[in-house]
Design a protein that fits this description.
Blueprint lengths: L1 H6 L4 E6 L4 E5 L1 H7 L23 H14 L1 E4 L3 E4 L2 E12 L2 E8 H18 L2 H24 L3 E6 L4 E4 L1 H7 L3 H4 L4 H5 L15 H8 L3 E9 L5 E13 L2 E11 L1 H36 L12 H13 L6 E4 L6 H10 L8 E5 L8 H6 E2 L11 E2 L1 H4 L4 E5 L6 H13 L1 E3 L6 E3 L3 E6 L3 H6 L5 H7 L2 E4 L10 H16 L8 H9 L5 H15 L32 H18 L10 H5 L3 H10 L10
Parallel strand pairs: 12-19, 12-20, 13-16, 16-19
Antiparallel strand pairs: 1-2, 1-6, 3-5, 4-5, 5-6, 7-8, 7-11, 9-10, 10-11, 14-15, 17-18
Helix pairs in contact: 15-17, 18-20
Amino acid sequence: MQHLLFMNAPTAMLLIDPTNNLILQANDKGQELFDLNNDEAGNILKAQPVSAFFPDCLEQLIHFTQQVLIQKEAWTSNLSIKVNNQTIHLEINASKVDENILMSCQNSVKSFARYHQAIVESNYQSGLTHWRKNETAFEEIERQNQLLLTAVGDGIYGVDAQGNTTFVNLAAEQIIGWKREELIGKKIHNVMHHSYPDGTHYHAHDCPIYAAFNDGEIHSVDDEVFWAKDGTPVPVEYTSTPVTEHGILIGAVVIFRDITDRKRIQEKLLNAIDEIDSLKRRLEMENAYLLEELNADFNYHQIIGQSAQVQHMVQQIELVGPTNANVLIIGESGTGKELIARAIHEVSERKGRPLIRVNCAAIPADLFESEFFGHVKGAFSGAISDRVGRFELADGATIFLDEVGEIPIQLQGKLLRVLQEQQFERVGDSKTRSVDLRVISATNQDLRKLIKENKFREDLYYRLNVFPIQSPALRDRIDDLPLLAKHFIDKVCTRINKPQPKISLAQMHLLEQYSWPGNIRELENIIERQIILAKDQKINFDILTKQNNDVQLTTRKIVPSELMSAIQHKALEKTNIEQALLHCNGKIYGADGAAELLGLKPTTLASKIKKYEINRHHHKI
């Protein structure tokens, strides 16, 4: 009898084994719904896996069977089967039978239709008057709903449980360009939500809007696009809310908003933030660079000396400094080429920005390009972040390339491009960056010889050597030795907190006799060493006479007849100034003036003319 009741039950009945994923038995309705073949006892003639009938909602099926096994019984309307390529949405009541599950399945579309048919019959049986009263109420509610839907500024549309459009408000039409009649009854996902912003396919199973009427939860998304009728993507944020009736999910309502303006503002804000971050990183690098420079203990633009060579060099600095011309400083190592570069920068219009210094002799060959132009993250092994190069750091300022002859020949072409076009790319980056900078370079090598040896580009040489300045060796400006020695003694004693020693005339004579192959740098080092060793506040330079191989002494003997008294020296200087004035027709300042001819500052020459009571008007031709 029980078997007869099972086989003739009015709903489709299936007995399944969830552990082995098999349909064990099915009644007549179950056989019809699932297209199965049974024997008279309801046993399946051919074993069928349960999952084969639920390909589109396998995850929900597993969740549902687990719920039945734990709670003994459960109900769902979220499952659908696929039979003969047809999708059938089901309502399933299930209970646990031993270790198996008995499922009662109904077509949810037919159940929904029967439910509404029951309501219609109930209204009909209540009488015509009651029905008209309900109809009037429904019409008023519908009218009010339409007014509300039309008045709101957000787009609103509804979909049924199959994803077909049920209504669309005016704001939605205006945002996406589709008319209401073009959308009603169609699967709206296929019309305007079919692709991601990059154009790849957006499957309906992944759509949060569809998920709302499958899982009964509210889904909010703030960064997707709806595709307008003209094919353009409209950035939107939306909320999909499930709609239920008597506990049954019947669809969803979607409220969305065009966020194009917001995205544009966000993009501008992000660009502004990136620019601020870039400026911040640059300022941090400049501050670190300036701190490094301060700690390096330079004399900045203080060039010490009054010799003719120094006066001529200072005059050249004053001439070229205010321009943007590239300068090549030539001189032996240790002559103070960097001080000359700093002096040029300090008298230029770029002095408000730091002088960016690059010691080309200290950079490994494989890191030159990164040091000069920077790199992006991942450009090479060890590039764990973006890095700003020295040329980019020098934008709007001056870059000093010390020992420029050490730059590899393969990089000189890129350096030439920066000098010609003021443009470059970071290592590993395709973005071209523009800079406004001035280049001051220095070398102790013979660049013309390097050009002949194909170690230096001739075109780069002419780009760098727009205005050459010679940095004189210390042996060529021995007259400046007393001033330099005093300066370094003051500097060293202040730093090590020692009283200043005195230099005798004999010791100064030793300094003047020495050839100084290491130039000013060697002078500073020897003075510091001897101050540390000094006793009784007397400094001694006898060590210079003991430098056999490293130090060469000039021992020219001066005979008394070669000496000149102070009076003779003044008379000779006065005569020399008068001859210069006569040659320049009494002109002191400017080109072809006596000051330029004598290698003196015009103010210095004017002071000497006043000192010697010379009337320059008497020395005109």
